[in-house]
Amino acid sequence: MVTQRESSRTAYVQLIEVLERYTQIYRGLIQTAEEKRQLLVRSQDHELRELAARENEWLAEFSQCEKLRKQAAVKLQETVGQKVDEEASLSDLQLILENEEQANQLRMIQQQLQQLAKQLHDLNERNQALLQQSMVLIHDLRDSLVGRPAESEYVYENPKAASTGIKRQSGIDFRT
After folding, report:
1. Taking Cα atoms as reference points, which of 26, 113, 30, 100 lies closest to residue 61?
2. If you compute the radius of gyration of the chain from its CA atoms, what whole number of angstroms results?
3. Helical H runs in the chain?
4. Which InterPro entries does the protein's record reference (predicted)?
5. Could you read off the pLDDT of 140-166 as tens digits, one per residue?
6. Could you give the residue ranges of the DSSP H alpha helices within 147-170?
7. Residue at 29 is within a domain
8. What residue numbers bound the domain in which 104 lies?
9. What pLDDT sits at residue 163?
10. 27: which residues sit within 8 A by CB, 6+ positions away?
11. How many structural domains is the chain composed of?
12. Phi, psi of 170 (to 5 degrees)
C-alpha cells in the first residue's frame, strides 16, 4: 500500500521533472532567439523561416509542458490534502510542501525559470526592434528608388473625414 508521504514524493518528483523540461525549453527558445537576431542582421529570410518552424515546435512543447505542470500541481495538492487549484503558482506550491529541502529546490527552479523567461523576453524585444528597423530601411530604400508617394497612397482615407495629421516617419533624411 502506498503511503501519503510516498504519493506526495512521487507527485513532487513529477513536478520537478516538468519544471526541468521547462528549463530546457526556455534554453532552446533563447538559443533560437539568439540565432534569429543573427539571421535578422544578415537578412537571411529562408533561414529565418526554418528557424520560425523550429521555434513553433518549442512553443508547442511548452504548451504540452504547461498541461503536465498543471496535472503535477493538482496531484501534489491532492496528496498533501490541500484544496485543488489547477492554476496554483510555484510559490503557492512551495507553501504546501512540508519538506523544507523540497520547498527550497522548487524555489531555486522557480528563480531559474524567471531568469530564463526574462532573458528570452529581452532577446525577443531586441529582435522586434531589429525587425522594425529593417522595415523602416526597406520602406526608405523603396522610397528613394521610386520616389516617396503621397501619404494618401499608403492608406485609404475617407474623403469626408478630418485628417488625422499622422505621417509616416522616415529613417532617411531626403532633404538635399
Report:
1. 26
2. 25
3. 4-42, 45-79, 90-96, 100-146
4. FlgN-like (IPR007809), FlgN-like_sf (IPR036679)
5. 777 777 776 655 555 666 667 665 554
6. none
7. yes
8. 4-145
9. 56
10. 116
11. 1
12. -105, 145
Please give the DSSP secondary-structure letter assigned to residue 171. Answer: S
What CATH number is given to the structural domain containing 124?
1.20.58
Residue type, 145: L
Cell of 21: 523540461
Does the residue 46 lie in any domain? yes
Q: Is 105 exposed, middle or buried (0-12, 13-18, 19+ CB in 10 A)?
A: middle
Domain assignment present for residue 30? The answer is yes
The dihedrals phi and psi of 32, each to the nearest 5 degrees, come to -65, -45
What confidence tens digit (pLDDT) does each residue in 96-130 have? 988 899 999 999 999 999 999 999 999 999 988 88
C-alpha cell at 38: 543573427
With the CA atoms of 79, 80, 83 and 85 taken in that order, what torsion angle do they form, in degrees rounded to the nearest 10? -70
What pLDDT, in 10s, does the model give residues 43-87? 788 888 899 999 999 999 999 999 999 999 999 999 988 899 989
171 has pLDDT over 70: no
Cell of 162: 478630418
Query: What count of other Cβ atoms lies within 10 Å of the Cβ of residue 92?
Result: 13
pLDDT surpasses 90 at 2: no
Alpha helices in 43-99 (DSSP H): 45-79, 90-96
